[in-house]
Amino acid sequence: MHTTRLVASVNFYKVFDRHMDFLAEHGVPKKISRQAVEKLKERVETRNHADIYSEVVGAAKALGMPLVNIHQPCDEYMRQVILRAIKSGKTEYVLDIVRSISKIPEFRNAATSVQVRLGSEKNKAGHWALAVGAGTNGGYHIAKAYWQHGVSTVIYLHVDYSDLTKMREDRLDGNLVVMGHLAGDSIGLNGLAGRLEHLGVETVRVGILAGK
């Protein structure tokens, strides 16, 4: 299990293929989707050589503590919660989407706020895409693929400043909403903790935001 977890950490970038599923759902051609995802994967995989990928497993082993990684299922739970929140409200303007997301307890309790980083909250939202739950944000290339193929508003948990700068320099035509990484992760972890507690398992919620 120890060796498997280390390999999973190094191969984490393969989770990004989930972005291709999301892109396809919104009509982006498969060839364009694959090219965008491959650029993202190469960028992140290159950073593997800088990562101390054994630290989490090593700490658990030294403490004699069982360890399981359940991040991806929690991310999918988070994605579904946000989708329901957006669809239950108005989606005519970008501001409508921002307001719907901001009502979710974890985002309401966050020190950060849901923001429009590209475009304007006054713009029509048009066709929108929630691009989360695929390992990391899609960055420049995936957002560009959405915007150039019928999607007006892309929703990320966060975006690197270098990607945002390139979007602005290239004057990409679209709206980019960023929500906040900690708040998003907290939704999934609160969902898991709540279920475990319902089954009688004691949980300690460390470093996540309140879901009420």
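The above is record 1. Record 2 follows with the same two-line structure.
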Amino acid sequence: MCLIGILACHAEDISLADGKVLKNAKVTRVEPDGLRIMHADGISKVPHESLPADLQAKYNFDTTKADAFRKQTSADQSEAQKRMREEREKLREMELAPLKKAQEEAAKTPRLTEATSIKGYWMRSLPHPRSLDSDYSKKIKFATYMTEQIRAGIYDLEAESAALQWNVVTIQVVKKS
């Protein structure tokens, strides 16, 4: 309660150049290009060009210093974003390295299993809808649905993935023997 009272005592309304009025405004930080101001609607950074002349004079704002500060801040942010992108890319490469190695190993050997054979296996594993009794209506609907999905190519990526995994396991077994 004391802190609020103290802030309220030193707070004042500030009229900006664009006509906006910051109610109960309190300067919380002075930066070379503007002020951080806490006010009734929240916290804002107000560039020195938008401040009234008396505040500009009070905080000794200089346009050249403000421009230099903005350029440096922009350059620092760009550099930080570049470093973050590079770090994310390194992490991604580290995560993908084992998968790439396994795929390279699989590419060196003849394909033992292909996605089409995996899809064929799935199709053969499903019961043919005509072979099921009418009492099994849910099973008939499911078998029909899955057959249509596999034929439409919905599970192509899963079939390719399964084929690659099958080949990697087969290669590892062959190498051990």
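Helices lie at 2-10, 53-58, 63-108, 115-125, 137-152, 156-176.
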